[in-house]
Amino acid sequence: MTGTASRPRPLTVSVHDTVPAAWAGLLASDSRADYFHTAHWLQSAAVHQTGIRSRWLLAADQGRVLGGLALAERRTASGPLPWLRSLRLDSSLDGTSGGPIISEALSPADQSAVFQALTAHLTTLRTGPLGIATVSLNGGHEAAFAAQLTGRPGWRRQDIPAAVIPLDGGPDHVSAHLMKKSKRNERSRALRRGCEVFASRDASLLEAYYPIYLQASSAWGQAPTPLAFLQALLADPADRVFFTCVRLEGRVIGGHLNLHHGRRVIAWNGVTDPAFARSHFPATLAVWGDIVEACRRGAAELDLGASGGVVSLAGFKQHFGAREERRGFYRHPAPLRALAMRWREKGGGSGDGRRWHDTPPAEAP
């Protein structure tokens, strides 16, 4: 590929069952990538999440690797009807941002060609009458590649607005110029009343936090993320994951598991104990702790995820100076599944595009 207006040569797309040796180089070549594109994320999920197998696509031009796509593969249960057995392929997990990573050394036209090659090959891997292929783009990739999927036959888009706090100027700047006075006051009161907030990689603190998360998952009606998966992420050998712990008199009352890659920290799995919501404001302290550690690590943005349509949660994030970032979740369903999706939409169904960290926390903000 030359980066000129001439027609690019056909790209070769290969499928791999283990992380390719070229993945680390690809990750470094795309500044838009986030933690959900790292090999450690998907490898940990494949080990600790039931029914998930990792797949990896590489797009190459005469042996030169230009882009890649990491996938979580699931086989749907067939029950008494074997002919319904289908294959689901997601770029990352349950809507967490993923999608292709592509070398930014290429021209925009060549990047688009690589994106199209990878997503087109993805749809050929989906099998069965209820099969589906999904791509969930973060803000940077959405800005660059949304036009490559919007309007393409078979692809359906769901808008996912998210909240991102800019960290330019450091925590003092965020506190003085972005945070609302109400949040600064809550932080001060919580600290005066004996709370502490700090970043840690201590797995025992994550274990102490987990019962609060289990209670929240039950209230949401969602299957919880396994503790072993969270602990595997925290043990990331590259030190890209940290747990923001909120503690009162030695008792863990909330926290956030944060994922760091490049310029962005993502506050992913996080809840706080509702018993302390109005007296010690652990949700406010957790976000403040995320901000402080993210700045210490040199990150430029703290991603608080979407709010799932919960207005109060969106407002809570805005009180920290979060701006809205538009993202897209794209689905390419098999015909029978597409029909079922249209039926659900007519009946008010919610679809299946929600990200894990887009759900409301255990306490009202």
Walk me through the structure.
By secondary structure, the chain is α+β, with helices and mostly antiparallel strands. The protein folds into two domains: 12-153, Aminopeptidase (3-Layer(aba) Sandwich); 163-324, Aminopeptidase (3-Layer(aba) Sandwich). It is built from eleven helices and 13 strands. Strands 1, 2, 3, 4, 5, 6, 7, 8, 9, 10, 11, 12 and 13 form a 13-stranded mixed sheet that branches. Helix 3 (108-125) packs across helix 4, helix 6 packs across helix 9 (282-296) and helix 7 crosses helix 8 (227-234). The longest helix is centred in the first third of the chain and has 18 residues, at 108-125.
SSE layout and pairings?
Elements: E1 12-16, H1 23-29, H2 39-48, E2 53-61, E3 64-75, E4 87-90, E5 101-102, H3 108-125, E6 132-137, H4 139-149, E7 156-166, H5 170-178, H6 181-192, E8 195-200, H7 203-220, H8 227-234, E9 241-248, E10 251-261, E11 264-272, H9 282-296, E12 301-306, H10 311-318, E13 323-333, H11 335-346
Parallel strand pairs: 4-6, 11-12
Antiparallel strand pairs: 1-2, 2-3, 3-4, 3-5, 6-13, 7-12, 7-13, 8-9, 9-10, 10-11
Helix pairs in contact: 2-8, 3-4, 6-9, 7-8
